[in-house]
Amino acid sequence: MEGTTSRNTRNTGPGRLLIAVYAVFAISASARAGYQILTKFSEAPLAYLLSAFAALVYVIATISLARAGSTWFKLSVAAVLVELVGVLVVGALSVFDPVQFPHETVWSLFGRGYAFIPLLLPILGLVWLYRRRPSRKS
């Protein structure tokens, strides 16, 4: 156990700030999606379901970034990659097919409604994970 915790440096230093930003996005995206789904779902079901999916990705990223161990590391990488692909795909779709997105999601227009942080966050997350990847030594 001691060796595992001493090697986990993802949740120290700048990693704490990264986790805090993910936590803020997890909370805000969850609240927004929940409200939208409960009150206006018929207006833009695709957008609101994508917001809920984004919220789930942010929750998983937050938890996995904060936890030690190679399994949590792999889950962090997967969550952040899914986030990056989601931002790029939803961002492009919302530009080229705006009819499908009458209301914005967290990832619409590459996160424009959130100062493009949803576009930058997974890039920073992947850089951080790469620099803090577990060593292969036993």
Topology record:
Layout (H helix, E strand, L loop, with lengths): L1 H6 L6 H27 L4 H22 L3 H27 L20 H15 L7
Unreliable stretches, pLDDT < 50, 5 or more residues? Answer: 1-6
What does the overall shape look like? elongated
Strand content: under 5%
The main pleated sheet reads as: none
Q: How many helices in DSSP terms?
A: 5
Q: What is the overall pLDDT average?
A: 89
Helix and strand run:
HHHHH
* Radius of gyration from CA coordinates: 16 Å
Secondary structure: helix percent: over 70%
Protein model, in words:
It is a single chain. With 138 residues, the protein is mainly α. Helices cover 70% and strands 0% of the residues. It contains five helices and no strands. It has helices at 2-7, 14-40, 45-66, 70-96, 117-131. The longest helix has 27 residues, at 14-40. The radius of gyration is 16 Å and the shape is elongated. Residues 1-6 have low confidence and may be disordered.
